[in-house]
């Protein structure tokens, strides 16, 4: 069974008296353990598609299932609860809380899930070691580089072991070497821990590290191709 299944999904945004068709006729299945990129030019619908899969927004038409569960017809509160327990997010601008330390930021989702402190600390320690962040636990986001902040954001997204991690242009604010290092790190976590990642990018250097490339154009699927691991190594 696919982890994520979209059936004939469409999204229309009202814009004044006009309507913007952001997505149309999207049929898509993504399995557990995939490392997939949504690629395409600006305005092609990448963010809209990630927002729908992440239950941050609802489609205008069609249906979306995650782990066999229909995501439509839920209240805002039910959607928030679903996100908390099933989906991890990584944002372009990291979105760390400035007054919290790196470790506290990484623990954030676990706190919302009311996981006891000892278990939270253990999980963050393990993730910081895997992400090369050990020793930076007590730093505040402002005292970390962009690449380090994004690694803390990855730790936060992975902490509760969600079914899927969604990352909208995760490397957009990073230089090219840091972008590549970050993507390779995400891919290693995907391989070693089986975490499912879906990210978006229009950067060829980042796209070539994905194992499956889904290209969008004008809100439609243009192509969907696997990439051999050799292409990314
Ligand atoms: N809230 C909104 N209201 C109206 N139109 C919107 C809204 N959000 C997105 N759009 C439109 O929907 C289309 C798809 O936008 P989307 O942000 O999903 O594309 P994208 O591929 O992520 O672009 P980018 O790479 O620039 O982030 C675009 O035409 C955009 O202008």
From TrEMBL:
> GO MF terms on file?
ATP binding; ATP hydrolysis activity; transmembrane transporter activity
Among the entry's GO cellular component annotations, what is one?
Answer: membrane protein complex
Span of the signal peptide: none
- Give the top-rank taxon of the lineage listed in the UniProt record for this protein: Bacteria
Q: Which residues form the ABC transporter domain?
A: 4-230
Gene3D superfamilies registered for this protein in UniProt: P-loop containing nucleotide triphosphate hydrolases (3.40.50.300)
Sorted keywords for this record are:
ATP-binding, Nucleotide-binding, Transport
InterPro entries, A to Z: AAA+_ATPase, ABC_transporter-like_ATP-bd, ABC_transporter-like_CS, ABC_transpr_LolD-like, MacB-like_ATP-bd, P-loop_NTPase
Has keyword Transport? Answer: yes
Q: Which family does it belong to?
A: Belongs to the ABC transporter superfamily. Macrolide exporter (TC 3.A.1.122) family.
| PANTHER family reported for this sequence | ABC TRANSPORTER ABCH.1, IMPORT ATP-BINDING PROTEIN
Entry protein name: ABC transporter ATP-binding protein
What organism is recorded for this protein? Trichloromonas acetexigens
The record lists the lineage as:
Bacteria, Pseudomonadati, Thermodesulfobacteriota, Desulfuromonadia, Desulfuromonadales
């Amino acid at each position: 069974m696919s982890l994520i299944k979209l059936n004939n999904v469409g999204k229309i945004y009202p814009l004044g008296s006009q309507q913007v068709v952001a997505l149309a006729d999207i049929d898509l299945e993504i399995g557990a353990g995939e490392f997939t990129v949504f690629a395409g030019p600006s305005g092609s619908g990448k963010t809209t598609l990630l927002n729908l899969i992440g239950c941050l927004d609802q489609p205008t038409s069609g249906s979306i299932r995650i782990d066999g569960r229909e995501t439509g017809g839920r209240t805002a509160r039910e959607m928030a609860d679903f996100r908390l327990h099933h989906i991890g997010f990584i944002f372009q601008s990291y979105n760390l809380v400035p007054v919290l330390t790196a470790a506290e930021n990484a623990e954030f989702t676990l706190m919302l899930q009311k996981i006891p402190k000892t278990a939270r600390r253990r999980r963050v320690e393990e993730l910081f070691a895997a992400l090369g962040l050990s020793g930076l636990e007590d730093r505040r986001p402002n005292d970390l580089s962009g690449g380090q902040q994004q690694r803390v954001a990855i730790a936060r997204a992975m902490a509760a072991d969600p079914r899927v991690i969604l990352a909208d242009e995760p490397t957009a604010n990073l230089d090219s070497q840091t972008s590549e290092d970050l993507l390779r790190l995400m891919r290693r976590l995907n391989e070693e821990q089986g975490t499912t990642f879906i990210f978006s990018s229009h950067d060829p250097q980042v796209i070539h590290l994905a194992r499956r490339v889904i290209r969008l154009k004008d809100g439609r699927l243009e192509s969907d191709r696997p990439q051999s691991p050799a292409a990314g190594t």
